[in-house]
Amino acid sequence: MNGLTDIKESVRQREYIDRIAGLVRDRGLKYLVVTFGCQMNERDSEKIAGSLEEMGYTKAMEESEADILVYNTCTVRENAAVRLYGRLGVAKSYKEKNKDMLIAICGCLMQEEHAVEKIKKSYPFVDIIFGTHNIFRFPELLYKRLESSESIADIWECGDRIVEDLPVRRKYDFKMGINIMYGCDNFCTYCKVPYVRGRERSRDPKEIIREIESCVEDGVVEVMLLGQNVNSYGKGLDTKTDFPMLLEEVCRIDGLKRVRFMTSHPKDLSDSLIRVIAENPKIARHIHLPLQAGSDRILKAMNRHYTKEDYISLALRIKQEIEDVSLTSDIMVGFPHETESDVDETIDVIERVRYDGAFTFEYSPRKGTPAAEMEQLDKEYVQKNFDRVLKCVQKVSKEQAKRFEGRTMEVLTEGVDEKDPERFTGRLSQNSVVHYPMEGHKVGDMVRVRLDECMGFYYNGHIVD
Ligand code: 5AD
Ligand code: SF4
Fold it and tell me: How do the domains of the chain map onto residue ranges?
C-alpha cells in the first residue's frame, strides 16, 4: 500500500464540477452543508462545500434559503440519527416552497442499510444519498441528479481508495484539519466506526506535507492532524514513517505555528511520541486520550487492550514529561454489565488523572456491534451512574481550569470576541479560550497574554510585549 491519492479519479470529478458550473453559473444559487458528529465529518463537509463553491454555489446562512442542502450524518450514537430525522421533517417544508431545492444525505449513517431504507421510505423527497467510501464522487452524483431528475442512492460497501486533490472550503482561514489516515481497525465492541469507515489506511506522508505547505502559503498557521487512531499512523505504508516522525516533519514547515492531533488510542501512544511532543514547542500541549471506562472487566469487554493501571501510568507519564500538558477524554457510562463498583473505578481514574475536560456519553447500542447483542442495562440505573461521573468530571475540570491564572502564556489569536468588538478571542496551546483587548494585532498572530482572571472555563487577560 502506498497511500497515494487516486489522481485519475480527482481529475474525473473535477470535470463534473466544471460541467455543473456551466449549469449553475450566474443563477445566484445557494448551498448549506449541515454536519453531525466528529472532526472527520467536519473535514468531509469542508470538501463538499469546496466542490459546491467551485461549481458556483454560495453559502446560505440558513437551511430555508438553500438551493442545495447536504446533511453529513453520524451514527456513533442513536441521538445523531434522531436529530437528522427531525431536521428532514422540517426540510420537507422548505422543499415544498422551493421546488428546485435539492436535498443530499451522506456520512456514516448512510453506511447503515436500515437508515437508507428508512429514508427512501419515509423521506422520499431526498434527492441524493451517498456514503463515506464514495464521498469524493459527490460532483458526479449531483450532475446525474441535475440531468435526470431522479433520486439517486449510491452506497459502497467498502473502499480503500484515497481521493484528495479536490476543492476544499475551509471553515477558518487561519487553521485547518487534515486527514492523515482513514478508517479504524480496532473494533471496540460498542463502536460502529470500523464498519462504516472501513479499514485503516494512512496517507502518503509527502502528500500530507505538501497539502499543509500549500495551505500555510495561503495563511494557515495551525493544523489539526486527523485520524481515528493517529498513533498507529503509517502501518502498511511503503515508507517507514510513523506518527512521531510525521509530527516532526510537519513541525519543520516554515510559517506553521501550532500542530494539534486527534484522536489518540491509549494502547498505541508510544514513549517516542511523548518525547517528540516534549521537545517540540510547536506541538500543542494538549492530548485527547479517550478512557471510555475505568474498570478492567469493562475495558476487556470493550476490547480496549489496556487496563486501568496501564492507562493511569501512561497519563501520569505524559504529565511528568510534558510540562503544562492538558489531558482530555471521552468517557462512557452504561456499557452492558457495568455495575456501580465498575463506575467507581471510572471515577477513581478521573480523580487521579485530573482531566482538564471530558466528553461523557451514555452508552448507546449500535446495531451490528458485539455489545448490542449483550444484555442491556436499565436506563434509570445508567442515568444515576452517568450523573455521578458527570459531576466528578465537572468538579475536576473546574479546578483544573484555574491552574494558569496569573501566568503569561502564548495565545493564538482566533477571531474577534463575539461579545465585544474591541477584544480578541484566542486559544492557549492547552486549548483553553482566552479573551483580551486587541492592541493592533490580527487573526493568526501568536501573542503573549497575561491570564489575569479565570472566568470558569475561559480566561480574561491582556497582551504583554
Ligand atoms: N455509545 C456511546 N458512546 C459511543 N462512542 C462511540 N461509540 C459509542 C456508543 N455506541 C463514544 C466514545 C468515543 C466517542 C467518539 O464516542 O467515547 O471515544
Ligand atoms: Fe471506535 Fe475504538 Fe476505532 Fe475509536 S478506536 S473509532 S472507539 S473502534
Answer: 7-154, 172-266, 285-404, 405-463
Across 144-166, average pLDDT: 85
Phi, psi of 178 (to 5 degrees): -140, 130
Beta-carbon neighbour count of residue 180 at 10 Å?
Answer: 26
Architecture of the domain spanning 7-154 = 3-Layer(aba) Sandwich (3.40)
* CATH architecture assignment, domain 405-463: Beta Barrel (2.40)
Q: Which residues does a 6 A CB cutoff place in the pocket of ligand 1? A: 76-77, 190-191, 290, 292, 330, 332, 361, 363-364, 366
CATH of 285-404, one of 3.20.20.140, 3.20.20.120, 2.60.120.260, 3.30.750.200: 3.30.750.200
Arithmetic mean of pLDDT, 181-200: 94
Spatial distance between the Cα atoms of 418 and 155, rounded to a whole number of angstroms? 41
d(CA 178, CA 202): 12
C-alpha to C-alpha distances, 461 to 400, 417, 420, 429, 457, nearest whole angstrom: 18, 13, 14, 15, 13
pLDDT of residue 287 exceeding 70, the answer is yes
Count the neighbouring beta carbons within 10 Å of the beta carbon of residue 96.
Answer: 10
Give the ligand whose atoms come closest to the C-alpha of residue 363. 1
d(CA 283, CA 263) in angstroms, rounded, equals 14
Q: How far is the CA of 267 from the centre of ligand 2 (A)?
A: 12
The three grid cell numbers given for residue 296, joined into one nine-digit string: 478492567
Answer whether 0.85 is exceeded by the pTM.
yes
Closest residue by Cα to atom 2, ligand 2, is 188
Entry field: residues in the chain: 465
Give yes or no on whether 285-404 and 405-463 have one common fold: no
**Angstrom distances, CA of residue 251 to CA of 5, 103, 244, 280, 401:** 23, 41, 11, 8, 28
The set of cell numbers assigned to 396 is 475536576
Q: Which atom of ligand 1 is nearest to the CA of 191?
A: 7
Q: Where are the alpha helices (DSSP H) in 198-355?
A: 205-217, 243-251, 271-279, 296-301, 308-321, 340-353
- Strand runs (DSSP E) across 164-294, as ranges? 175-179, 181-182, 201-202, 222-226, 258-262, 286-288
The average pLDDT across 145-162 equals 87
C-alpha cell of residue 389: 461521573
Pocket test of ligand 2: the residue of 132, 185, 188, 305 to mutate, having most ligand atoms within 8 Å of its CB, is 188
Q: What is the CATH number of domain 172-266?
A: 3.30.750.210
Q: CA 3, CA 12: separation in Å to the nearest integer? A: 19
Distance (Å) from CA 365 to ligand 1 centroid: 10
